[in-house]
Automatic annotation (TrEMBL), chain A:
Chief location: membrane
Protein name: UPF0397 protein JOC58_001794
Transmembrane segment boundaries: 12-30, 42-67, 79-96, 117-140, 146-172
Organism: Paenibacillus hunanensis
High-level lineage: Bacteria, Bacillati, Bacillota, Bacilli, Bacillales
Annotated localization: Cell membrane
From TrEMBL, chain B:
PANTHER family xref list: ABC TRANSPORTER PERMEASE, PROTEIN ABCI12, CHLOROPLASTIC
Lineage: Bacteria, Bacillati, Bacillota, Bacilli, Bacillales
Transmembrane annotation, as ranges: 21-38, 44-61, 68-89, 114-137, 247-266
Keyword Transmembrane helix part of the UniProt annotation: yes
The name this protein goes by in its record: Energy-coupling factor transport system permease protein
Length: 186, 276, 594
């Protein structure tokens, strides 16, 4: 894998636009849930999709940049443990879905399974390990509180990505089908 | 849907005049220090410094008041959550127990818990003013150049610039798309049932993502045509040389960081214990 | 110049143009050379360019015209290196830019030779301010900062934009963004400037300014200029050396404007001819190269005055029937997104049942805001909007959408399903209509829109014009009484423009009331029954287009421009100019809808 300095121009732009989308969706399209400080975040469906489309580096950096900007612009206060967890989430989804060539319209049953397995693993690692452990290390928050929050985030994000992310990926792959096979009907 | 954001305004104060790079360095080190330490004396000192710096910058209150309320709500909820989940966490941390009053069930208020949560509050109070200030006094144009200067690759730094450049455009797209969706009866507000809402979200996200993918193609084409990424280095139109004020700011943050770490860890623990 | 045209006319038809051009430009060296060049995109089954032979010489100003899909953009991509470096495909033949074979150069090296100004003003404005965007190329070339600041100022000065160096893109109009992009290209010393549909998103006045600016840069710098456009008349406002006509991947014409305008190449390739020539054709005049028809100022009308006068006498301007029943009334509406910054101020107008009304005005005049208020996206701060005698202020977006459909400018903002059928059915499904009824209504609408044969296609397989139709169909299926369309013809060539407008006209004749937000003057002239003109949040005109489009004050306030018909009337002395324009419009409509 190329280092971050070897990123293509398209990936650079995708990171920028992906981060901007993360900010906008994080602010306007998140649905409050029953666990304090935890929302149903549609953004993670977007992040998973962009990691699938543009690779692990894009996933990592959109997570880091997008989440930092969202926190900073709207709340004036970046919450670093969850920012890092977002980055890790994007990275893992990107790494585990590297062989899915969705740009060529390839997203069938196998790919769907692999994508969802990837996002499940990514969610578990990010919200059950990275975020709570960092919360304890950085902020010294009580363990049971941060793990309950982590479980809540992991479940809701996994479900959101499974529904919204998969639907988006299917829809996107359908836009990549080629012309030629189509004929007009009377 | 006019939502307020924290935005930069140009004023002429010693804080505004600092280069983006030293502001960024100051903010990063400040936030890291405040994250690591739990020493009440250091946190109190940092809080005083933060307030002084904030006052020097003379940022009008209404520029950030709306964010302050959000922060207070978030902060209040978090404090309540900590207590509900771990009412005796302070006892655990400090190793002693001084009860104040028994509340209900297994909830007893202790001095240790109060002190612990006071420290958590203090950590917020230390970071929030500097975080807010960083956003309010840093020219976004200078931001990418600053990131690059403190060692981030220029390509990644430019990603940040692109994000800042296109946030308003994407917000506009999002608004247009959700308007036309609403006109066709696609609703994502609380009026709709949860499951339906998730499905409707897809109907809004898909056009947004497809137009964004198209936008990525266009922008990257334009950037290729203007030679982006050709060299190992790139210069920045907005970069500014470090001046006296910058050296003072950098020296100050280095001293604060080192002093706090030394004081905090002198006794081998992150926590300053008033109970022993 | 005069002498050159003279000389040119003496050359017998069919003799090589290259020889003539070499004579004219004094044996200048070729900078762009296509030799038997063909190109086929990887994803396509047919080549887009066939055996292209084209040479452009140093310091020339060349216009490349052609309908959508003709391959003219592909030609541009070959010149600036996007082909083969961004778009893969198979090439044959040779292409040399500035003497170098294209495959030897990387795209970044080529960017030193060719500066490109593209169509989309937002996609290419990557800086956070004007100054940074102009500096972008220099930053990438790692030019030292002091040097950079000087050069950015010089480039901004060339396009007369130094007052805006600190402005952010969101505070600029499309024309201003384009000026920035142009400065960003000039800053780099590229000797070839390539403009890929530079007028596409500009209003008539800004378009004219752009054409003048390009011309001035050409005269002052002597750079080679290649303009790709289908808005022929507007580019010919200023002289060009040659026009290249591209159709179906081949070069079908390579001649001076004067020569081109007396052939029927424009008609056969589907490019709109200049209005003044249109009028002369209606009058039965024969156009020859000797008349110098390239510009209204140069054309010699001696033999045309008599037929033009006869035609003028026979045509009558018809008074359009004014609809008796207002279906929509906007009454004293004011609005602002932020307190203290009003966008609309006390605007009132009525829309009659079955009318086609155009709302015109420059960027930020409030014309789009009006439509958003009508649809309920925002609420007016004062005044009210009445539909069929009922105040709409209590109605939600969804309720209003039952009566008033809104079609956005960008179809991609509306398309949210992968399949055409599902897209059109979406609005009915969310309203809980029974699936059988849905099928019936969707099929009916698809037939009306000419999309029935494509009903099981994915939307991604459709062309831009077809997508636009799908969005109209998806609104039409909800059976509104009024349709509001934001720039329905933007970015479409003459043929697609005609198709789209004939379709809307047909809907109108079936009883649909249509409101169009547009700055397309052809659209207003050819289809608008009435034009409401906005400026600075106020209504400044409300009349039939033939009267609105001749009022100098209105034209200036709305960034429109005087048509060349007006100039033709003045020059020929036939009729009173305003009356002349009015009669032309009446005659033209008579031909369209007998």
């Amino acid at each position: 894998m190329a280092g971050s300095s070897g990123l293509s121009v398209k990936t650079i732009v995708a990171i920028g636009i992906g981060s901007a989308l993360f900010v906008i969706l994080g602010r306007f399209a998140s649905i409050p849930s029953f666990i304090p400080n935890t929302n149903i975040e549609v953004t993670y469906a977007l992040l998973a999709l962009f990691a699938l489309l543009y690779g692990p580096w894009a996933g990592l950096l959109i997570g880091l940049i997008g989440h930092t900007l969202k926190d900073a612009i709207f709340y004036g206060q970046p919450w670093f443990s969850w920012i890092i967890a977002s980055g890790i989430f994007g990275l893992i989804v990107g790494l585990l879905t590297r062989r899915i060539r969705i740009a060529d319209g390839e997203f069938g049953g196998m790919e769907m399974l692999r994508f969802n397995l990837a996002q499940l693993i990514a969610n578990v690692v990010s919200w059950l390990v990275v975020a709570p452990v960092l919360d304890i290390l950085i902020y010294s928050e009580p363990a049971n509180k941060v793990f309950v929050q982590g479980v809540g985030a992991a479940i809701s994000n996994t479900l959101t990505v499974a529904v919204v992310g998969t639907l988006l990926a299917i829809a996107y792959s359908k836009t990549r089908t080629k012309r030629g096979s189509l004929s007009r009907e009377a | 849907m006019s939502v307020k954001m924290l935005t930069y305004t140009n004023q002429n104060t010693p804080i505004h005049r600092l280069t983006g790079a030293s502001k960024l360095l100051f903010f990063v080190l400040w936030a890291l220090t405040a994250m690591i330490i739990y020493d009440t004396r250091c946190l109190l000192a940092m809080f005083v410094i933060a307030v002084v710096i904030f006052a020097v910058s003379r940022v009008p209150f209404k520029q950030y008041s709306f964010v302050l309320y959000l922060i207070l709500i978030f902060f209040g909820l978090n404090q309540i959550a900590i207590f509900l989940f771990s009412p005796l966490y302070g006892v655990e941390l400090y190793g002693t127990r001084h009860d104040i009053v028994h509340l209900f069930a297994w909830y007893t208020l202790t001095w240790e818990q109060l002190f612990y949560q006071f420290n958590v509050a203090l950590k917020y109070a230390v970071v929030v003013p500097i975080g807010l200030l960083f956003l309010l006094v840093t020219d976004p144009s200078e931001f990418a150049a600053s990131l690059n200067r403190i060692g981030v690759s220029y390509k990644v730094a430019y990603s940040v610039a692109i994000a800042l450049r296109y946030i308003p455009d994407i917000q506009q797209d999002f608004q247009n798309i959700s308007f036309s969706a609403q006109a066709r009866g696609i609703d994502i507000s609380r009026k709709e049932k949860f499951g339906k809402r998730l499905k409707n979200v897809v109907s809004i996200l898909l056009p947004l993502i497809l137009t964004s993918v198209e936008r990525i193609e266009k922008i990257s084409t334009a950037m290729e045509l203007r030679g982006f990424g050709r060299g190992k280095k790139r210069t920045w139109y907005r970069a500014r040389p470090l001046r006296k004020g910058d050296y003072i700011a950098i020296a100050m943050i280095l001293i604060i960081t080192v002093a706090c770490l030394v004081i905090t860890f002198a006794d081998g623990s992150r926590f300053y214990n008033i109970f022993k | 110049m005069e002498r050159i045209w003279q000389m040119y006319r003496d050359i017998p038809e069919g003799s090589g143009h290259v020889a003539a051009i070499e004579g004219r430009t004094g044996m200048k060296k070729p900078v762009i050379e296509f030799q038997n060049f063909s190109f086929q995109y990887r994803a396509q089954s047919e080549p887009t360019l066939h055996e292209v032979n084209l040479t452009i010489y140093e310091g020339e100003k060349v216009l490349i015209v052609g309908p959508s899909g003709s391959g003219k953009s592909t030609l541009a991509h070959c010149i600036n290196g996007l082909i083969p470096f961004m778009y893969e495909g198979e090439r044959s033949g040779t292409l040399r830019i500035a003497g170098e074979t294209i495959s030897d150069q990387g795209i970044t090296l080529l960017s030193d030779e060719v500066g490109t100004v593209m169509q989309d003003p937002d996609g290419q404005f990557v800086g956070l301010t004007v100054a940074e965007d102009i500096a972008f190329k220099l930053e990438n070339d790692a030019v030292p900062q002091a040097d950079m600041i000087k050069r950015v100022f010089e480039a901004a000065d060339t396009v007369e934009f130094t007052d805006f160096l600190e402005a952010s893109p969101h505070s600029l109009s499309g024309g201003q963004k384009q000026k920035t992009t142009l400065a960003g290209v000039l800053v780099s010393d590229a000797d070839i400037l390539l403009f890929d549909e530079p007028l596409a998103s500009l209003d008539p006045h800004t378009g004219q300014m752009t054409v003048e600016l390009i011309d001035r840069i050409h005269r002052e710098t002597g750079k080679t200029i290649v303009i790709i456009e289908h808005r022929l008349e507007e580019v010919l406002e200023r002289p060009v050396d040659r026009v290249i006509v591209v159709n179906e991947g081949r070069i079908v014409g390579d001649m001076t404007p004067d020569e081109l305008l007396c052939t029927d190449l424009l008609r056969t390739t589907g490019i709109r001819e200049p209005l003044y020539l249109n009028a002369l054709h209606y009058a039965g005049c024969k156009i020859t190269a000797a008349m110098q028809p390239g510009h209204i100022d140069s054309i010699q009308l001696d033999n045309c005055i008599q037929p033009l006068q006869q035609w003028y006498n026979c045509v009558h301007q018809d008074e359009l029937p004014v609809s008796e029943h207002p279906v929509l009334e906007v009454e004293h509406v004011s609005f602002g997104y932020e307190a203290g910054k009003p966008i609309l101020h006390d605007v009132s107008f009525q829309i009659g049942k079955g009318e086609i009304v155009c709302i015109a005005g420059r960027n930020g005049a409030g014309k789009s805001t009006i439509s958003k208020l009508i649809c309920g996206f925002y609420r007016p701060s004062a005044g009210r909007i009445v539909f069929n005698g009922r105040d709409l202020s209590g109605d939600t977006i969804k309720e209003r959408a039952e009566h008033i459909g809104f079609v956005m400018q960008n179809p991609n903002h509306m398309l949210s399903k992968p399949l055409l059928y599902d897209e059109v059915a979406l609005g009915l499904r969310t309203r809980g209509v029974h699936e059988d009824t849905i099928r019936e209504r969707v099929h009916e609408v698809l037939k009306v829109c000419g999309l029935y044969p494509f009903r099981s296609w994915p939307i991604s397989a459709l062309s831009y014009g077809q997508k636009k139709r799908v969005t109209i169909a998806s609104i039409l299926v909800l059976e509104p009484e009024i349709m509001i369309l934001d720039e329905p013809t933007a970015g479409q060539d003459f043929r697609h423009y005609n198709e789209m407008m004939e379709f809307l006209n047909q809907l109108n004749r079936q009883g649909m009331t249509i409101i169009m937000i547009t700055h397309d003057m052809h659209l207003m002239m050819e289809y608008g029954q009435r034009a409401v003109v906005m400026a600075d949040g106020k209504k400044i005109a409300d009349d039939c287009p033939s009267r609105v489009l001749v009022q100098p004050d209105t034209i200036a306030a709305a960034n429109l421009k005087q048509t060349s018909l007006h100039a033709l009337a003045v020059k020929s002395g036939v009729g009173e100019p305003n009356e002349f324009v009015g009669r032309f419009i009446a005659y033209d409509r008579g031909l369209r809808h007998p």
